[in-house]
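Posted in: Structural Biology > Protein-Ligand Complexes

Title: Requesting predicted complex, 48N in pocket

I'd be grateful if someone could produce the 3D structure tokens for the following input. Sequence and ligand are given below.
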Amino acid sequence: MEPPASTLKTIGKADVQEDYHGSYRFAPIEEAQVSRYFDTMYERAVSDVVIVGAGSAGLSCAYSLATRRPDLKVTIIEANVAPGGGAWLGGQLMTAMVIRKPADNFLREIGVPYEDEGNFVVVKHAALFTSTLLSRVLALPNVVLMNATSVEDLIVRTDFENKERVSGVVTNWTLVALNHDTQSCMDPCTITAPVVVSTTGHDGPMGAFSAKRLISMGLNKELGNMRGLDMNRSEPAIVNGTREVVPGLVMAGMELAEHDGSNRMGPTFGGMIGSGIKAAHEAIRMLDA
Ligand code: 48N
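-- Reply #1 --
Done. Output follows.
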């Protein structure tokens, strides 16, 4: 989209200069040239895959999907201003992040250093994993992140066999989504996509969003409700259980524990990585079917 015509009569020669003795000069700009977000919303109104939630599972899915299939328009919707979900800390006030083998393969793939402690590896700070993964994902040309944006509903259509199929998401600014009962409804936007991957986690003001919405719209009977902590049982269950839970919707990460009623694992993140990668494989299977 062409930038708006210049409203300034003359714009000085762009004699840019990086100088720290009082003569620093920037190239000139029109204020209107800064408003770019709406281009993104328009360009991504139809995406190939929408990933709801930019936590460790959602970001692992985005990286695996967008690198395997650079032809796909992958759009991530994240309710918080800061993406990353619960992966900024290894656990309550613990900074290091434990990742059980074989999920360490992914760390080498994206270039996160770690200490090898036998059955698992330790990343010295969880923020090192999350910031590295975020930077790798956002550097991919076919990935767009819309943060401070909430999915507040699912688009559901009937397919040619008259089966209900999730076909996209309904979005709004998070501040609006959190305040619908304090003002008249501010209508949302939509993003249609043949595949939606929901990784909205298990807690927080909007956690387990799709797991709960499937019930309130009658596409699922009841929540499985996440069970108690058991690291050895939970991580394979989450990875192996990652799947298309209803036509058009793949569920992964801790949201799946709410949907299926599988155990939680606490501050070990290999299951999130594996579940995200499995979700990427599921999304490709669905698109190629
Ligand atoms: O990090 P989370 O919460 O979710 P996961 O599944 O990626 O990772 C979970 C992991 O951090 C754990 O909880 C660890 C393993 N602990 C387990 C345990 O036993 O305690 O990320 C979910 C993201 C967040 O950033 C939310 O802001 C976002 O999803 N989100 C949404 N984004 C858009 N629209 C929504 N409706 C929405 N709901 C949540």
